[in-house]
Amino acid sequence: MDKPINLNIKPETAKGVFSNVMLVTHSDTEFILDFAQNFPGMPQGEIATRVIVTPEHAKRILQALGENIQKYESTHGKIGQNVRAAFRQSQRIEPAKRWNHSSA
Q: CB–CB of 19/37 below 8 Å?
């Protein structure tokens, strides 16, 4: 078993960054993960943060994410393919009312 890593986190980092879009690109030596925000009614989305990792670390991220999704789904049920629609239904908020825009 791997030894636990002891890390500090700055308060501004602990707040986190919201992202509802992720773009992934790669080269021979790195994977670039761009976490972005794209909101209805806004003219353009914006990249909130960029994370650059080695191919080996990208694979570890994929494995860790898969394990955590399995744990989440075993507790909370399957994650739907259309999460946005499920959220709207759970909140009973129409997009035009919530975001003040018309949906296409």
A: yes
H runs (alpha helix) in the chain: 11-14, 55-76, 83-91, 95-99
In tens, the pLDDT along 21-61 reads 999 999 999 999 999 999 999 899 999 999 999 999 999 99
Q: Torsion angle of alpha carbons 22, 9, 79, 58, nearest 10°?
A: 50
21 bridge partner residues: 36
Mean pLDDT of the chain: 83
Write the DSSP symbol of residue 41.
Answer: T
Sheet holding 46-53, edge to edge: 21-26, 31-37, 46-53
Domain ranges of the chain: 17-99
- Compute the distance between CA of residue 52 and CA of residue 65 in angstroms, rounded to an integer: 17
**pTM for the structure as a whole:** 0.69
Q: How many CB atoms lie within 10 A of CB 20?
A: 13
Handedness of CA 25, 59, 85, 91 (dihedral sign): negative
